[in-house]
Design brief:
The protein has 168 residues and is α+β, with helices and mostly antiparallel strands. The protein has one domain (8-120, 129-158): HIT-like (HIT family, subunit A). Helix content is 42%, strand content 21%. It is built from 4 helices and 5 strands; from the N terminus they run αβββαββαα. It has helices at 8-13, 60-81, 121-130, 136-167, and strands at 23-26, 30-34, 44-48, 85-94, 97-108. Strand 1 (23-26) and strand 2 form a beta hairpin. The longest helix is centred in the last third of the chain and has 32 residues, at 136-167.
Length: 168
């Protein structure tokens, strides 16, 4: 069995596993979903539709779509939740095996210091250790609001991509 055949990220995008909140955005190369792990409601995943294990292996078209999409997602997240900061990090390992790259887009608030000793990736480690399950109803409601915020952005991105492809 290849890594792509045993890939949770691919399976979630293909609907083979439950995805709380559903897909928020699906473009030609990328999809946006809610994180299924214990990183709190509002933590999103931006990942390529194609099974890719290294950022360097993305196609020029995937790279061209990535920046504008990530920018739009962080803006929409900021408008929806008003975090003090938004963390963005690439994850690609499952154990020590390279897996489907995905970018975790996580809202963070200064008040988090009341629950967690350190910011950034340390907070993520603490969240995984605490293993607080997500409230699926809360995730679904959040995702519906984000879908509305991302809908006009998705249309604008498609127009921008269409223009770029026409110019190429």
């Amino acid at each position: 069995m290849t890594n792509a055949e045993a890939c949770l990220a691919c399976d979630l995008s293909a609907g083979k596993h439950p995805l709380p909140g559903g897909t928020l955005h699906r473009g030609e190369h990328w999809t946006v979903e809610h994180c299924i792990g214990p990183l709190r409601v509002g933590t999103l995943i931006v990942k390529p539709l194609r099974h890719v294990t290294r950022f360097a292996d993305l196609t020029p078209e995937e790279v061209a779509d990535f920046g504008p999409l990530l920018h739009a997602v962080t803006r929409a997240l900021g408008e929806e939740l008003g975090p003090d900061q938004t963390y963005i990090c690439e994850w690609s390992h499952s154990g020590w095996v390279a897996g489907h790259i995905h970018f975790v887009v996580q809202p963070a608030w200064n008040r988090d210091r009341e629950r967690f000793e350190h910011p950034g990736p340390f907070t993520q480690v603490e969240m995984f250790r605490a293993a607080v399950p997500l409230d699926e109803a809360e995730v679904a409601a959040f995702c519906e609001r984000m879908r509305r915020r991302l809908s006009p952005v998705a249309e604008a991105l498609q127009r921008q991509i269409g223009r770029a492809n026409a110019d190429a």
